[in-house]
Amino acid sequence: MGNSSSKKSPHVLLVGLDNAGKTSLLYNLTNKNIDTVQPTSPQNPFEKIKVQNQKLIIWDLSGKESFRNKWRHYFVGNDIVIFVIDSTDRDRLEESKEELAKLLNEPLLRDSPFLILLTKNDLANQMTQQDIEDQININTISPSPQNANEANRKIKFFSTSSLNGSNIKESFAWIVEQHKERVKREKKK
Ligand SMILES: Nc1nc2c(ncn2[C@@H]2O[C@H](COP(=O)(O)OP(=O)(O)OP(=O)(O)O)[C@@H](O)[C@H]2O)c(=O)[nH]1
Ligand SMILES: [Mg+2]
């Protein structure tokens, strides 16, 4: 795991509750129609995409409750986590927060930056980014850092729409930037 980011293509874990909009995000990036998206089959969670000339290996996992305990099979070798939250799903924001807290506290993911995407911002009944950030209160669910690396862990929120593309490019630019910075840091060592 230690030198995972020296791999050419970073491994990205794409997780969040079922129906959050994970696969739709990839549909947007690859110009597929999100009206045709189906719940992800637990059997086939793999996608390669290219953003700004950077290849990413994205593990687009099923968010079904019964599958969530299998997410951990993808933790080893992970470089970046994308956690997707449906910004219209008030009833399950707390459940999202619990899953996010587990991931943030997972020892195998302590080196991974977290991109938290609040999707479906095109819908009128969305919660605002501020409301969601207040409710999640990230500092209360993040582990106490055990070293300088962990103290510098980057966590970034974006409010996005896979329907109209709002903030999708910016989000992935952030991922590519995190990867490049990490490669630079490892070269210096
Ligand atoms: N309006 C709107 N609908 C969206 C957006 N993103 C996803 N959806 C819809 O939300 C539903 C779920 O999207 P998926 O991408 O399948 O969700 P998922 O997180 O991959 O779900 P699982 O694979 O079951 O874990 C679909 O009906 C999408 O069309 C968005 O940004 N805006
Ligand atoms: Mg899916």
UniProtKB/TrEMBL annotation:
Pfam families, sorted: Arf
Residues involved in Mg(2+) binding: 23, 40
GO MF annotation list: GTP binding; GTPase activity; metal ion binding
GO BP term, example: vesicle-mediated transport
Keyword list, A-Z: GTP-binding, Magnesium, Metal-binding, Nucleotide-binding
Gene Ontology cellular component annotations, sorted alphabetically: cytoplasm; Golgi apparatus
UniProt superkingdom: Eukaryota
Positions annotated to bind GTP: 16-23, 63
CDD domains given in the database record: Arf_Arl
InterPro entries: P-loop_NTPase, Small_GTP-bd, Small_GTPase_ARF, Small_GTPase_ARF/SAR
SUPFAM superfamilies (UniProt xref): P-loop containing nucleoside triphosphate hydrolases
Record-given protein name: Uncharacterized protein
Family classification: Belongs to the small GTPase superfamily. Arf family.
